[in-house]
Write a structure and sequence with these properties.
The structure holds two protein chains of two kinds.
Chain A: H1 24-53, H2 57-66, H3 68-101, H4 107-119, H5 122-133, H6 140-145, H7 154-165, H8 168-180, H9 183-190, H10 195-224, H11 227-233, H12 243-252, H13 256-300, H14 308-311, H15 326-333
Helix pairs in contact in A: 1-13, 2-13, 3-7, 3-8, 3-10, 3-12, 5-7, 5-11, 7-10, 7-11, 8-10, 9-10, 10-13, 12-13
Chain B: H1 16-45, H2 48-57, H3 59-92, H4 98-104, H5 107-110, H6 113-124, H7 131-134, H8 145-170, H9 173-181, H10 186-215, H11 218-224, H12 234-243, H13 247-279
The chains are: A mainly alpha, B mainly alpha.
Chain lengths: ~325, ~280
């Protein structure tokens, strides 16, 4: 994403020369249209959040964030994310390992099933848990008899959040691990590494940045989920209000500054998520460039320095890792 | 890939059983059983006549479908047009701040819908930074259907840009050079060479934006005004039914929305399969 057109137009530069490019006026018009569209829909709303949040001064801003209901909403949001994100990360890594590193029947079906929560409206995600655990749901009478509260309580909020953020880590890792193949893990095992050791020393460094972005995005969505949580929460102030629900309560009470103050925290989280994403993409692009250079160098000295089977590392996949991996050591030894 | 006798190709890598087992258990408990509960509820506690009365024939529900699907279609169409322009500009041109703009396109993925909801409402209300320019013209944006379209456009925007961008990057420059050398104008080249090549990606992005918009709740909830028959979207109606403990009414609407969502998911998968075939 966001790649450079120059990458596939290295020596001849077709975009610079007419008639395979547009006139200066067309360019300006198109850039202007794109920027105006993005300004109207992205930049202005984001800027407005901070302008309104600080509109009544820093004192009012801090007061809105430290009053008891806000503190309890922040605490509940943190608790929810602290349960949902690690579990979904564990699932994402397990799913990516099984799907990307092995060949088996039904793989496509499994991948589609992982995407299922993306297709489901957040309100329906809340609805299915109400049907299971609500007073008139399947397990409702039993839960009531045993005095267990799930709907209108923290467990329901955590479950709905987990459902909505379920695919994020897996979605980020599966294509990444599929592209990396299994050769490195196989050589690690051949050299006597154990299964978990192989994962920790070979796979994990390779997927590190993708994993970090998946976790951060999952976290941002977990903290910001509104639809699913508002169905199962019951909006009990100071008890079952997460940050997005607290924003809603304040906004409907015409406490605009306070609601935008809480919103600004979530907006900051979103911006931080985008920064991490940019860093991850920059690192990946840099590593790919290094890999490409290494392959080029390997080609120059081919035959003389390395035996054929080692120098023919097809895309220099090993160089995607930031630390030297086993195949690098192999190169050095050869 | 996999031979006829075994369902899995043998591998020296360990951990398949453990990972597969955990994945299936977790997915089963969190996703499949709860969704199955909805299907079972529909099958056992909802008669066909009830489903018809509560989810299709009810005029208030019908009005909410019309609004949800209509506004989503308009928003996805806007996104297809402007998203193509944004993707084109980001792939083909250089301008100051381009990397920032490129990174910002993903904002709707990360920004909570409640935040974008109150921000857009404040922006487009009749006293807001943008709304005040529409007010003298007699156009109401917030608390009316244009506001709903704006909220749905915001949340669907990254889908079109992010699916069209790689397709534009993969285009062979030789094709455009050939078209130009054969005497095509730039517009003809775009319409007859570039557009057909990126069309599968564009349609995929359109369908994804549409699917996301149909189910969207958070941002629309704030800007819509939520007047029955006029600015009430289908997901909100589910919430209202649930607040009245009317599980049957909520499930009936939920099932209709779920069927539409799965149909869209199927269309998206077919489109992706088509665009992959197109590229090779």
């Amino acid at each position: 994403m966001g790649g450079n057109p120059a990458s596939h137009a290295c020596s001849v530069s077709p975009w610079g020369i007419a008639p395979t490019s547009e006139s200066a006026w067309t360019r300006r018009l198109l850039i202007g249209t794109a920027l105006a569209f993005l300004a109207l829909f992205l930049f202005l709303p984001l800027a407005l959040v901070f302008v309104v949040a600080f509109g009544s001064g820093v004192g009012a801003y801090l007061a809105a964030l430290t009053e008891p209901d806000a503190r309890s909403a922040i605490r509940l949001t943190l608790v929810t994310a602290a349960v949902a994100v690690p579990l979904n990360t564990l699932f994402g890594v397990a799913a990516a390992w099984a799907i990307a590193k092995f060949e088996f029947r039904g793989k496509n079906l499994l991948t589609t099933l992982i995407d299922l929560p993306f297709a489901v409206s957040p309100v329906i995600a809340g609805l299915i848990f109400v049907l299971l655990f609500g007073v008139r749901g399947w397990l409702g009478p039993w839960l009531q008899a045993n005095d267990i509260r799930i709907i209108f309580a923290t467990p329901g909020i955590v479950l709905a959040t987990m459902f909505v953020t379920f695919p994020f880590v897996a979605r980020e890792l599966i294509p990444l691990m599929q592209a990396q193949g299994t050769e490195e893990e196989e050589s690690a095992l051949t050299l006597g590494a154990g299964g978990f050791q192989t994962f920790r020393r070979v796979t994990l460094p390779n997927i590190k940045w993708g994993l970090i972005y998946g976790v951060i995005l999952c976290n941002a969505r977990a903290m910001g989920e509104f639809g699913a949580v508002s169905v199962v929460s019951g909006h009990i102030r100071g008890h079952t209000n997460t940050m997005p629900l607290h924003i809603e309560v304040l906004y409907n009470d015409y406490q605009t500054t306070a609601s935008f103050a809480v919103a600004s925290l979530l907006a900051l989280l979103a911006v931080a998520t985008l920064v991490v994403k940019s860093v991850v993409e920059w690192k990946t692009a840099r590593n790919q460039a290094i890999a490409a250079r290494e392959v080029a160098e390997d080609d120059e000295g081919s035959g003389s320095r390395y035996p054929m089977d080692l120098s023919a590392d097809p895309v220099g996949v090993h160089a995607l890792a930031c630390e030297p991996t086993l195949s690098d050591t192999q190169h050095a030894e050869a | 890939m996999v031979n006829g006798l075994h369902w899995k190709r043998p591998s020296v890598l360990p951990g398949f059983g453990l990972c597969m087992g955990f994945m299936l258990l977790y997915m089963g408990l969190l996703v499949l059983i709860p969704l199955g509960g909805l299907v079972l509820f529909t099958a056992t506690r909802l008669s066909a006549a009830e489903l018809w009365d509560r989810a299709i024939a009810d005029p208030r529900v019908l009005a909410s479908y019309r609004l949800s699907f209509g506004a989503s279609l308009i928003a996805a169409t806007l996104n297809a047009g402007f998203g193509l322009v944004v993707a084109w500009v980001l792939v083909r041109y250089t301008f100051p701040g381009k990397r920032l703009v490129d990174a910002m396109v993903d904002l709707p993925f990360a920004l909570p819908t409640a935040v974008s909801g109150i921000a857009l409402t404040t922006l487009y209300a009749h006293t807001g930074w943008i709304g005040r320019w529409f007010d003298p013209l007699g156009i109401q944006v917030a608390y009316a259907w244009p506001g709903i379209v704006i909220a749905l456009t915001l949340i669907g925007m990254p889908f079109v840009v992010r699916t069209v961008q790689p397709a534009l990057e993969d285009l062979e420059p030789e094709l455009e050079e050939a078209a130009a050398s054969l005497g095509a104008t730039r517009w003809q080249t775009f319409r007859r060479v570039i557009l057909p090549a990126v069309l599968p990606a564009l349609l995929t992005g359109f369908a994804m934006a549409l699917a996301r918009a149909v189910g969207e709740f958070g941002s629309v909830y704030f800007i819509a005004g939520n007047m029955p028959y006029r600015t009430e979207i289908a997901p909100l109606l589910i919430l209202i039914r649930l607040e009245q403990f009317d599980y049957v009414g909520a499930t009936a609407i939920g099932v209709v929305m779920l069927v539409v969502a799965f149909a869209l998911l199927l269309v998206i998968n077919l489109l992706q399969w088509w665009s992959r075939r197109f590229q090779t």
